[in-house]
Specification:
The protein has 6 helices and 11 strands. It has a single domain, classed as DHBP synthase (Alpha-Beta Complex), CATH 3.90.870. Helices cover 27% and strands 23% of the residues.
Length: 207
């Protein structure tokens, strides 16, 4: 049964976020707000939690999971980035963009794309998520909270609780957030490729 943590969107209570972080450390899955929609998150190096995350979303191992990072310095531990890519990433972080990049050896093979060795990374522009990441001390594995068989992400914590409380361990409620997924850009080729147009504007990246 999911534990609900109601936090202030701009000044979240640290003690509540610490409790949510402890649940994640123990292998739990949480729904958290971001600058695009709510997302499901778990520990990066917890194989069982990652499998549960995929099961809740009903996606297979070809579906890109994303690493939520606090900043670009953290992102660089998990992806190979050249100078040109770094300049573009700097323009889009923090923000509602997911960047598909070549994964480093720090990323467990089971989490990267099975045939391409790539990973999605992003730096969310949301105070609550940023503070949770800071308290947690490492990136979180994430996927947009889109219910199986649907196309729209969820942005209301009460609805999430009604529909997913039996399979989640925590819900961080900071009020409604945008109901639009991130813009996804593949940076693994010679030129950036738009995979999905979402909330992030390409013009911000000069593309």
């Amino acid at each position: 049964m999911a534990q609900l943590f109601e936090v202030h969107p701009q000044n979240p209570q640290a003690r509540l976020l610490k409790q949510a972080a402890q649940i994640l450390q123990a292998g739990g899955i949480a729904a958290v707000p971001t600058d695009s929609s709510y997302a499901l998150v778990c520990r990066l190096d917890d194989k069982v939690a990652a499998e549960n995350l995929r099961r809740i979303r009903e996606v297979d191992d070809k579906h890109h999971l994303t690493l939520l990072c606090r900043d670009l310095s953290e992102l660089a531990n998990y992806a190979r980035v050249d100078n040109r890519q770094y300049r573009l990433l700097k323009l889009g972080t923090p923000g509602p963009y997911t960047f598909i990049l070549e994964a480093t050896k720090e990323v467990p093979r089971r989490l990267s794309h099975p045939s391409r060795r790539t990973i999605g990374l992003r730096v969310p522009d949301h105070r609550v998520t940023q503070e949770l990441l800071a308290l947690f001390g490492e990136p979180l594995l994430a996927t947009t909270l889109i219910p199986p068989g649907e196309t729209e992400p969820l942005n209301d914590a009460e609805e999430i609780r009604e529909r997913f409380q039996k399979v989640l361990q925590a819900i961080v409620d900071a009020g409604a957030c945008p109901r639009e997924p991130t813009t996804v850009i593949d940076f693994t080729g010679d030129e950036p490729v738009l995979v999905r147009q979402g909330r992030g504007e390409l013009a911000r990246l000069g593309l």
